[in-house]
Amino acid sequence: MDDDSDRELVDRIITGGDEQAFRLLYRRHTPRLQRLARVIASGRGLEADDLVQDTWIRAVARLSTFEWRSSLLTWLTGILVNRTREVHRREMLAEFSELTEAIGPWPAAPDPVDRIELEQAIQALPPGARTVLVLHDVEGYTHEEIALMLDLSAGTSKSQLCRARRAAVRLLTSESRTTNART
Amino acid sequence: MPGPEESHDSAWRRQMAPLADEAPADPAAEARTVDALRLQGHFKGKGVVRKGFLLAAAVILLVAGAWLGRQLAPEPADATGKKFALLLIEDSTYHGEADVGIDSIVSEYSAWAGTLRKSGQLVLGEALSANQLTLGPVTAETSREANQITGFFIITATDQDAAIALAKTCPHLRYGGGIVVRPIFETS
Fold it and tell me: Which of A8, A179, B18, B34 is deepest in the core (most CB within 10 A)?
């Protein structure tokens, strides 16, 4: 049963209420969801564990409506991201409404930094920018997939990514200056 | 030869790689999720809820969209009025927490209940935890629907029309929730 595809396991949950099938899906996909939740939840009214649990509960309630137009993980990610949007809705609407689709030059990737500095810099980003940066540069989603998840245009996703990367570079550069000054 | 955008993407993804660590799913979190889904009737067979199992308050808020009601010390209710139960129900149409946030929800509901208390019409008001154990041979669907009751008020009113008119002023309806109004049989 461990080798069953997502589709087979979902069918078993829908048609037979198969708890073991759910547990297999849970173990297969929760590490990725947990990783994403840890970064985008940011502890502001949301804890990563609660966000992941909520995602699964909402997903199971809607499983019979899932049409397999994307992978199951992409669909689960969309549920998780949209739950975050509900909480940060006003902030994110304000962020997205300020954007035009003009991008400007792409900022170069920062010099290597340790994980803690990277997490701190990303946590400091506005929620919309943080979400797009993590979905694209950590989770590997395309702008088209991000656009579907966040109900944006792909162009807005690119603009948001560009802005997020610039902000991340500024934060990482100022943190690295502070670290060097201390040593 | 990758274009400039693709080159930037590769470089950024390499630098973000430290964030891509995964840890295996926590068994305790898995158990909580399974318990919550079992309570909602999604799995075959009604499992016994583990003793002492409680959903975290944050999960109750997230899952049921429940509002944190405080138990209000009721003023003596109008002795001449009839009693009615107002059952607050929520399904996917409820959007209160998403709209205005939990703090505003608590304030609004509490203020409404306070008005009832001052007029002597509030007997009791409570929020219900989503942590539910269903006993008996009822169907999973019935159990699931029962879990959609997230709180209740016991009020007094002169008749059912007056109780309905009062229920219509409850903020719960404004946020997409439903209210079931049921007379309470007087046994004394």
Answer: B34
What is the per-residue pLDDT across A154-172, written as a single tens digit (0 to 9) for each?
888 888 898 888 888 888 8
pLDDT tens column, A124-141: 888 888 889 999 998 889
* Residue B34 parent element (H or E): helix B27-39
Helix (H) or strand (E) holding B104: helix B102-118
* Nearest residue to A154 via CA among A162, A163, A146, A165: A146
**Rounded alpha-carbon distances, angstroms, from residue A2 to A9, A20, A180:** 10, 10, 49
**Token pair for B33:** 């999720």
Q: Which residues, in sequence order, are CB contacts of B83 under 8 Å at separation 6+? A: B77, B123, B154, B155, B156, B183, B184, B186
Closest residue of B to A115, CA-based?
A: B18
Nearest residue of chain A to residue B91 (CA atoms) = A61
pLDDT above 80: residue B61? no
| ipTM here | 0.75
CB-CB under 8 Å, B4 with A31: no
Are B104 and B37 in contact by the 8 Å Cβ rule? The answer is: no
| Closest to A76 in 3D by CA, of A93, A98, A54 | A54
